[in-house]
Input
Amino acid sequence: MKLNLPSYLKPGPGVVITGAFIGPGTVTLCLMAGVTSGVSLLWALLFSTFATILLQDMVVRLALQSQQTLETLILHQIKNPLTQRMMAIFIFVAIIVGNSAYQSGNLAGTSLGINFIFPSWKIAWVCFFVAMFCIMVLLTSNSKRFKNMLGLMVLAMSISFLAMALYFCPDAVSLIKGLLLPTLEDGQLMLALGLVGTTVVPYNLFLHSSLLFNAPVADLPALRKEGAFSIFVGGLISMAIVIVGNKALGMDINNAVDMAAVLQNAIGSWSLILLGIGLFAAGLSSALTAPMAAGSVASGLWNCFFRPQKKVGAAISVSVVFIGAYVAITQVNNLWVIKTAQVINGLLLPVFIIFILWLLNDRSLMKNSRNTLLYNLGGFFVLLVSLALAIKTIISLIS
Output
């Protein structure tokens, strides 16, 4: 018997975005937020979830109305050839080099999740086979199969982290205060901005537009609902991870391995299986979407300046996986590359938001679908937060 699910419950582009922003880095940061600050910073994740919904919704409207990808629209708005090429280089470095740097963490996180479930398996070999699996999926899977796979990953994360969060859930008063009453104690500003930055991810704006820019305009309402619902679920997963971290509040926890020991002592070995499933799903979803985003953006940039080539995107995607696998297996110290990517991403996010707001208010492009006053106010507020993130990134680099 075939189930007739509402359109927003069927895996679509939105579930790919959710799988993209919840990676091992997000899991680790959310766990550390719970360990150091309890549930007092849940409001930062609530804000970042709705900020992401707002920005991605704008990108969906923009892509379908224009039938163009975001990088193409941005470059077409720049009339000076030199400035246009400089922007293309910045986008390329931010998306492709950044995702190559992050891919090593995605593969390592996936392998660690499997290692929690099967401790005897060698992480280096697991990492190698996960990388080969990613390449196979990226080269052979069609769009529908890929979205269904990401849907399963998000479902696995939901079950594992929400189950643990329900088990460790604090009292209702603390939870409501953490969600609805923004507070910042000493040393929490950078952590709060980090929680926002790990959710509002620049490359997801480009990924989302490339996934649906050629969809029929009639699909716009369904795609907006699916995107909002999927990202909201992603926000709930991130909040659940913070609640799990709250179990170890005040303890000396530095990574997921330390957290695994705390959970095992608290509720037994089955917690390792849940944490392993969650970390595996988070790592694999990001390990698939990061090279996919890099490939799609590289292909879009190539098409803006040269004759279109279908193999450019696939070549970049495979290269990103290979680079990430090499760094993860050999344990090369790529901290400076990651920091460089973070700086470029942090600085470009406000630029991308300005372009999106500009494009969405362009009468000739959007016609009667231009931004409303409420959307503009919301976008402007998110822009201010992104500027704070950029300043935080610069401060982190200097220190």
User: Anything to note?
Assistant: The radius of gyration is 20 Å. The chain is about 80% helix and 0% strand. The mean pLDDT is 86. The longest helix spans residues 81-117.
